[in-house]
Amino acid sequence: xxxxxxxxxxxxxxxxxxxxxxxxxxxxxxxxxxxxxxxxxxxxxxxxxxxxxxxxxxxxxxxxxxxxxxxxxxxxxxxxxxxxxxxxxxxxxxxxxxxxxxxxxxxxxxxxxxxxxxxxxxxxxxxxxxxxxxxxxxxxxxxxxxxxxxxxxxxxxxxxxxxxxxxxxxxxxxxxxxxxxxxxxxxxxxxxxxxxxxxxxxxxxxxxxxxxxxxxxxxxxxxxxxxxxxx
Length: 231
Ligand code: BEZ
Hints:
The protein is an alpha+beta fold and 231 residues long. Helix content is 31%, strand content 22%. It has seven helices and ten strands.
């Protein structure tokens, strides 16, 4: 099962947007690679409509979406057509899913990525999310069970936080959103710890030597990460 920091396992696949070679086709981009349990199911339908509605928002952060389930291509096509033609959800309707949805009837890719959790269901993928950076490295892994639809604001927050951490060499605290203080890496020497506590490290505020923050205005964060995702 791939872990954070590992290179994303490579594969070729058939999708609703043609064949893909993963992650090579996405070099230089961030990718949210996610699985869903089954086509023609309600929670998955609500998730696909939400993801599709936010696709441009993710693209603004250089982030592409790639879905997978262990259904076949024709099931995928029929389901996506049904979503567009018939389903309304939370103000969304006439929603066209234009990101690739991988067919994986053999479960080859789902097994490779640890998306099958037999204790939950041995014939369906759980709701897995892999965030992969422009170098093809796994940066975040999140799993949800079959019954629980994902929080898509959180997925966008994850993308923004990872890109902010990379660009500014900082970390982001609990529930961080752009514009809120970021965490400065802990002092690596007694000298730096003293400088920070004496207030000599510009722009850095310390509650204690190991807990230091600094302000990065929301517009500076957005300017850095909206133009291009940095890894
Ligand atoms: C759903 O997407 O609604 C769903 C899929 C598999 C099991 C339970 C719910």
